[in-house]
Structures are given as C-alpha cells and as structure tokens.
Write a structure and sequence with these properties.
One of its GO terms (biological process) is methylation. The protein has one domain: TIM Barrel. A three-stranded parallel beta sheet has the order 1-2-3, with helices on one face. The model has no long low-confidence stretch (mean pLDDT 91). It has helices at 4-26, 64-81, 94-104, and strands at 38-41, 85-91, 111-116. By secondary structure, the protein is an alpha/beta fold. The termini are far apart.
C-alpha cells in the first residue's frame, strides 16, 4: 500500500542499492570491465492487479495515452537513477509493445530490449 511517488522513489533506491552492491562486490578486481544495470519495466496490466498482465486484454479498453502515462514515470525514474538499459519485460500485447517502442524514441540514448509473454495454443509438450 504505497502511493505513486513512493513507488517511484523505491525504484530509484533499488538502482542505487545495485550500484552500491556492484562497488562492494567487485571493487577494483574487475577494472576495465563494466557491469550493466538493467531496469525492469513490466506490462501496464501488472498495475491492475487482476492477472491481465498475462492476457493483455486491457489494451482493448485502455488508450495508448493512458498506458504511456503509466509507463513514463517508471521509465524516467529508472533512467534518472542511472540504469544502463531498460528491460521491457513480458509484454502481452502488440499494441502495448508498439506504444513502448514509440515512447522510447523520446530517449534516443537509452538502450532497451523487449520481451513478450505469449499464449501457447495447441502445442504439445514433452515432459
């Protein structure tokens, strides 16, 4: 039960904790090597707390502007905290992925990857 501002601050703090952990763990022993920090950005549906982050049907009733206004503060918090790359993870719907790709044009120096969660239909599994 935290509000939006607290959640943004926690995201920034988590990046700072990672930076401190890297410095403590690696110190000077990895001079010349760089450890990259990825900031995780999950789907809009995760904030709905109804399991729709796995199904993606929320894109049918949620505008791109609404999803963008939900994602933007999180992305900006991670970038301002100093992540090296954004991990846009388990996005269940093409419309949200396209919106995120469009949004990233506003951060031309930020690297990112995007992964999807996909529904498996009629594919036999061998266990």
């Amino acid at each position: 039960n935290i509000d939006k501002e607290e959640s943004i601050e926690l995201m920034k703090e988590s990046v700072n904790f990672v930076k401190e952990a890297i410095e403590i763990e690696l110190g000077n022993e990895c001079s010349g090597r760089r450890v990259l920090i990825a900031g995780s950005v999950g789907p809009y549906g995760a904030g709905l707390h109804d399991g729709s982050e796995y199904r993606g049907e929320y894109v049918e009733t949620t505008s791109n502007a609404t999803m963008a206004s939900w994602h933007r503060p999180r992305i900006e918090a991670l970038i301002s905290a100093g992540v090296d790359v954004l991990a846009l993870e388990t996005i269940p719907a093409q419309a949200e992925a396209e919106m995120l790709m469009e949004m990233l044009k506003g951060y031309p120096h930020m690297k990112a990857w995007l992964t999807f969660s996909c529904k498996v239909i009629n594919i036999p599994f061998i266990c």
